[in-house]
């Protein structure tokens, strides 16, 4: 048995190796402390260093690096590391800090393997603890799950572990379960962790950590933090790791962009016209009215501090002018793009992403030092993932270095090579790789050598496939944005001639890193090719002679899916089917493009017609209309019924965009087609609905009512429940706007009953909100609340957040009428948050005015005046004219506010509100709305 002294000596003998517990610390806010009082800070930091060293060394730890005020220490035993952190925090808390005030030191502990080299440590574990540290706050001690498992049974007295849940750290790889140590004599309450959940972002999690790139990452971050850099483009050939570097830089900057950091994937977009809608969809903006996607983006981004990461821009270079327009409109916007070529825009800063660092194969350093080279480190990391017993040795190191050198340090090529370690040791791999590269550098002569070499690396991996796997690999190129296993089985084996079982083939391609698995909706995974690999697969598909058959099978499959989904979008399964169509939207685009290009007019019209309601419900107004208009131009031998659906789709989408002339023209054409082809009364009634709604928007209520009554009668005669429900709602809108409120309510009630039977959120939600508003206006806030609460619950359950703000606004008015001013404020604020998110100025004006009325009721007349001014400006911007009944809700509050502040002060405050931008106004409203 060891004595205490012998045990300590055992722990500290020689450098720590194997599994180590790391303690990282730094001083929060040290930069500002240095700027305020450098002399006092120098003295304080000396005392800080002494406290930390004493605590670490007293508990058998070793400080292996200090950077400024940051300490990096290692321990052989996790409980020792925890004791050192607690002792240091107690000493820091009780120290007299004089002029600087207490130093707020955050700490993080993580346990894992690392490599020691010349007194320093390297490996993923250090990245993990550094990310964990950056998530914390001064005075806080955070632990990873690995460390928690080692200390939980040896906690000091009066200490505990608080589970803070799974968090996405800024290294973008797997989430980490984070714990906080608590002690009776130390602070235990802190702000939320600064993880990726803390700011709005959609950065995708990565299956593997970023290896190397420390220098490039620092340079990219420095450029993006510079006030003179607005547009930064990461350039380089496919496979250099541009996307991964860009994602890491974006993750590091999440705390520095108040309104969010967003990743926009352009890999599946070939049409430059789709760039603006794709960005808008990523930001969860919904097209509406006659506003173009570009104008929608300008308005949304104008006063926001946002970073956009636009990936694979080389495919849509013709849309570069859009970026210039957005940067000109939004002074706090920054754009980070990845592209194989520069964008050639004024003010663009280009950052060529270099290959990973390589040793000289002719003069190798000792094996223990090879991991300092990024290419070697990546190979070892990825090889170890498929063969856990793999490590660098004196025997295999020269071969590993030669492989990395022959692949020019390209990350993707190295990953592909490392995946082969299951089959071949590095020494055997070298000769095969060398031979394959000589054979497979036949890319275009004007391509960079590295890109030709990458083709060789992919080609080499391709040559490792058997014939059946090669056939599957080529046919998978028809998919865009990934696919399910079911789609692969149907499309790739449409003729029953696939020489390999699809499941076995997919499994093999996954193992060989030629295919990646991602989470899909529900329980079914999706299988995705990197774009660089997909390009190679497309070439192989063309060479095979199967290309047209595969593309036809692909188009047929997604036509079947779209036509199956079409009626389901109106029923209780609508959320699931909308999700499926959204997930495969890229595949639908590819199918449409193929059908249009190859004069498959019937297929193009059928597919476009089947998708018309998806585009309408999901807010793809502009894109959906472009596809439908293009399909109409390719009429060919298409059926009249297919053409009619497309005409109806154009009509409704044009109505949504405010293009009433086009809506009416397509509806008239559709009615003529119905008469000529004998398509039946239901389809004719749908076109009358389009015409009736257009007439309502024009204010021609008499014509609108006549058309909609005819449509309703035709749908009733045909016993078309959905058509009846749709017509009732449109007719009720006309009745309400004409002042026939009782008739409107009767129609809404009838439509609501039918919509409940149908079970879809589109009609049911609209009826609940509209009928609830009618009850609100007639003085029944209880019934209005009941209906709008049901609508809000429905929208949340079905994933329709973009329609939720109207229900919340109605709930706010209902609470106000009941005298519950606090609840009223809460609902109006919730609605405004969504209006800001989706750029909805119409509902925003309603909620703003409601908040103004709540402010009056709470005795805040001065604030109310500004809010009324904001609401007035928003209404004018949308062109919306309030009906007299709508105005009656506000008149009492409006009069009370004016009398309280006086006409002059009222007018001045209202003008201040009118001059505010949309975002500034909402920020002001939210500030007032959250004050009790």
Kindly list the characteristics that best describe this protein.
single chain; 932 residues; disordered N terminus; Alpha-Beta Plaits; five-stranded parallel sheet; 6 domains; seven-stranded mixed sheet; 40 helices
CATH class of the largest domain: Mainly Alpha
Low-confidence stretches: 1-15, 435-452
Instruction: Assign the structural class, choosing from mainly alpha, mainly beta, alpha/beta, alpha+beta, or little secondary structure.
Output: alpha/beta
Q: Globular, elongated, flat, extended or rod-shaped: what is the shape?
A: globular
Quaternary arrangement of the chains shown? single chain
The domain count comes to: 6
Rg (CA only): 32 Å
Helix content: 55-70%
CATH-level-4 superfamily name of the largest domain: Tetratricopeptide repeat domain
Spatial sequence of strands, sheet with the most strands: 2-3-1-4-7-9-8
CATH architecture classification of the largest domain: Alpha Horseshoe
Q: What is the arithmetic mean of pLDDT?
A: 86
Number of helices: 40
Sheet bearing the most strands, described? Answer: 7 strands, mixed
Number of strands: 16
